[in-house]
Amino acid sequence: ALIITDDCINCDVCEPECPNEAITPGDGLYVIAPERCTQCVGHYVEPQCQLVCPVDCIPVDPAHVESEAQLKEKFRRLQLD
Ligand code: SF4
Ligand code: SF4
């Protein structure tokens, strides 16, 4: 999963781009729900939020480093919701 850092300027550009509805306005800054972020695996070849973020503040979350296989499995689970 990716994570939004303190550099976020709350521009709201990323939220509508997420195919998994993983991004929400949090308490101050936008946040990504790690259980919903597949790093766009299953939908796109690149993370869409990273592509649109004007301040480049969405790295991989060191607490949620996942393999391609794990991200694909998360994608499959989300389709069943
Ligand atoms: Fe959503 Fe993709 Fe960004 Fe994860 S990487 S938060 S799935 S847009
Ligand atoms: Fe924050 Fe970047 Fe999303 Fe804008 S696009 S709300 S700066 S994370």
Description of the structure:
By secondary structure, the protein is α+β, with helices and mostly antiparallel strands. The chain has one domain: Alpha-Beta Plaits (2-Layer Sandwich). 22% of the residues lie in helices and 7% in strands. The chain has helices at 48-52, 68-80, and strands at residues 23-25, 30-32. A hairpin with a 4-residue loop joins β1 (23-25) and β2. The longest helix is centred in the last third of the chain and has 13 residues, at 68-80. It binds iron/sulfur cluster (2 copies). One iron/sulfur cluster (SF4) is lined by residues 2, 17-18, 20, 22-23, 32, 37-40, 47-49.
Measured distance between first and last alpha carbons: 18 Å
Mean pLDDT: 97
Which outline best applies? globular
What class, by secondary structure content? alpha+beta
Q: Could you give a short account of the major beta sheet? A: 2 strands, antiparallel
Number of strands: 2
Which architecture does the CATH hierarchy give at level 2?
Answer: 2-Layer Sandwich
Ligand inventory reads: iron/sulfur cluster
The low-pLDDT segments are none
Counting copies of identical and different chains, the oligomeric state is single chain
Count the DSSP helices. Answer: 2
CATH topology: Alpha-Beta Plaits
Q: Secondary-structure element sequence?
A: EEHH
Return the CATH class: Alpha Beta
Count of structural domains: 1
Radius of gyration in whole Å, from Cα? Answer: 12 Å
Order of strands side by side in the largest beta sheet? 1-2
